[in-house]
Amino acid sequence: MWGKVIAVLVGILAGLWWMRGFDEGVIRGKKVLVTGASTGIGEQLAYHYARMGASVMVTARRAQRLQEVVAKCKELGNPDAIFGYVNGDMSNMSFTEHLIKESTQRMGGLDYLLLNHILSPNLGFWKGDKDDMAHLDKVFEVNFKAYVHLASHALPALEKSGGHIVVLSSFAGKIAPPFSVPYASTKWALGGFFTGLRQELTMTGSNVSITICIIGFIATDNAVTAFGEIQNGLPLQRIIGSAASPSDTALDIIRGAAAREEEMYTPFQKTYITTWISGVCPSLMNYLIRAIYSDV
Ligand SMILES: NC(=O)c1ccc[n+]([C@@H]2O[C@H](COP(=O)([O-])OP(=O)(O)OC[C@H]3O[C@@H](n4cnc5c(N)ncnc54)[C@H](OP(=O)(O)O)[C@@H]3O)[C@@H](O)[C@H]2O)c1
After folding, report:
1. Rounded CA gap, 87 and 232, in Å?
2. Cis omega (within 30 of 0) on the bond before 267?
3. How many Å lie between the centroid of ligand 1 and the Cα of residue 3?
4. Angle, CA of 272, 274 and 279, to the nearest 5°
5. Is 33 helix (H, G, I), strand (E, B) or coil?
6. Is the separation of the CB atoms in 234 and 22 below 8 Å?
7. What is the predicted pLDDT for the residue at 176?
8. What is the pLDDT of residue 242?
């Protein structure tokens, strides 16, 4: 009896997994812009898109790192594809307009806008002092306002192509973790803005999709360093210890965006279950979060 039940469940899971697969050929010839692509998940997104035959523009502040990323994209990519970079700081809103103009001109349009960059979070208790306030302003400029400006400048080109906006959010944009309150707030704000914008686009018959990516702990150099500082000796270390790879995460995001998913979760089990519990029983989730972030 139980053997049959397990066999049916395994069959259903295998079917669901198969349905998540996608034909990488749909990416060939697409025009992609990735922000925050000098390292981490953004860098891996650029490599996967290049390998799948897309043209890719990348951006971040460090020109030398971007040159290296572009060189690797050229190695991996289609010889007819266009690869390039525009470096600049996302706290400067006029840069966001320049970036979209330059990228769409060079590639001859835009199909995918991947909003991925982040200012490294200042981890610790919120004290509300001058430093906290200054950081709050900066983090909202870079992690939230720049995303809104980029998407707004890109919309005309995306309308033409029936394109995609992909917003890299976090489980911190669904639950409320301590020690990174300004960072988490920008992710909640992104969820509100881009969900509302999606509603308006749908109401006006637009064919532009918006995918919000709910991302768990991923082993990028910056995240490993940042989490390392707060997790030492805490139960948190055991729970998030096994971080997912940036490359697998990038691939999952590309699949979710191509499928025009409204929200995608990666790694699925950890982020989806956490978000689900938080939705059904927020007090329980808040209690569990305090427990895993606490050494008492
Ligand atoms: N890694 C995780 O565990 C995790 C978990 C949940 C969600 N996420 C989300 O996934 C996305 C990528 O995370 P990641 O860990 O790959 O990030 P990361 O490795 O820290 O990379 C951040 C990128 O943003 C760029 N950047 C930083 N400040 C900038 C500024 N002022 N102007 C322009 N570019 C700037 C950095 O390049 P330069 O320094 O060269 O400018 C870098 O390319 C983020 O949206 C993050 O919130 C990550």
Report:
1. 35
2. yes
3. 46
4. 95
5. strand
6. no
7. 85
8. 75
Q: In what order do the strands lie in the sheet with 263-266?
A: 83-85, 55-59, 31-35, 112-115, 164-168, 209-215, 263-266
Residue with tokens 């995609």: 164
Rounded to 5°, angle at Cα 106 from 140 and 80: 125
| Residue positions annotated with a catalytic role | 183
Residue 53: per-residue pLDDT: 98
Specify the pTM.
0.93
- The rounded distance, in Å, linking the Cα atoms of 290 and 175 is 12
Q: Which of 35, 57, 61, 90 to mutate to test the pocket of ligand 1 (most atoms within 8 A of CB)?
A: 61
Determine whether the shortest distance from the Cβ of 161 to ligand 1 is under 6 A: no
Tokens of 170: 């976090």
Q: Are the beta carbons of 192 and 173 closer than 8 angstroms?
A: no
What pLDDT does residue 234 have?
A: 64
177: phi then psi, degrees, rounded to nearest 5: -80, 150
H-assigned helices in 170-240: 181-203, 221-231, 235-240
The pLDDT of residue 296: 41
Q: What is the mean pLDDT of each run of 10 residues along the chain (296 residues)?
A: 61 54 93 98 98 98 98 98 98 98 98 97 92 97 98 98 98 92 97 98 98 95 80 62 90 97 94 92 91 72
